[in-house]
């Protein structure tokens, strides 16, 4: 399976530098609040999302179609194709009637996402309400 390749845009806000805009190869912009650490603009990063945090929505940063549904009683697992050879796994309620092979959108709160450097370490999430004075 292919990976979504990301490019970070480094911006400074007070004393905290963060990766502010994340450009997805699928043509969307998505913001994940993390401390840039040693990451530089143009570095490739991996975006980590848990299936239970993704939501099928009327609009969202990820567009695709549900290619497979595993209906498991109290929950349904969807495999949503968002680009050629790229699928996202979504955990939904068991009674979710999302049709297969029809356009859908996925949404997620950026604060529950994780960014990883290609050599493994995760970038540190910024805590809401964090002050620049430490």
Structure report:
With about 130 residues, this protein is mostly beta strands. It is about 0% helix and about 50% strand. It is built from no helices and eleven strands. Strands 1, 2, 3, 4, 5 and 11 form a six-stranded antiparallel beta sheet that branches. It starts with 5 loop residues before the first strand and ends in a 17-residue tail after the last strand. About 20% of the residues are buried.
Provide a concise account of the structure shown:
With 134 residues, this protein is mainly beta. The chain contains no helices and 11 strands.
- Beta-strand share of residues: over 45%
Radius of gyration: 16 Å
Shape: elongated
Overall SS class: mainly beta
Number of helices: 0
Order of helices and strands: EEEEEEEEEEE
Helix content: under 10%
Let me know the number of strands.
11
Largest sheet, if any? 6 strands, antiparallel
Distance between the termini: 41 Å
Mean pLDDT: 76
> Can you tell me the residue ranges where pLDDT is under 50 for at least 5 consecutive residues?
1-23, 129-134
């Amino acid at each position: 399976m292919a990976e979504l390749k990301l490019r970070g845009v480094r911006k400074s806000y007070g004393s905290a530098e963060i990766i502010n805009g994340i450009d997805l190869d699928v043509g969307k912009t998505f913001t994940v609040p993390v401390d840039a650490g040693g990451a530089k603009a143009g570095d490739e990063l991996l975006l980590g999302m848990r299936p239970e945090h993704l939501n099928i929505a009327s609009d969202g940063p990820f567009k695709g179609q549900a290619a497979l549904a595993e209906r498991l009683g109290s929950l349904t697992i969807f495999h949503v194709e968002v680009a050629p050879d790229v699928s996202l796994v979504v955990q939904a309620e068991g009674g979710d009637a999302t049709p297969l092979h029809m356009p859908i959108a996925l949404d997620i709160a950026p604060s529950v996402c994780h960014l990883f450097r290609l050599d493994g370490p995760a970038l540190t999430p910024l805590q809401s309400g964090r002050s620049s004075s430490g």
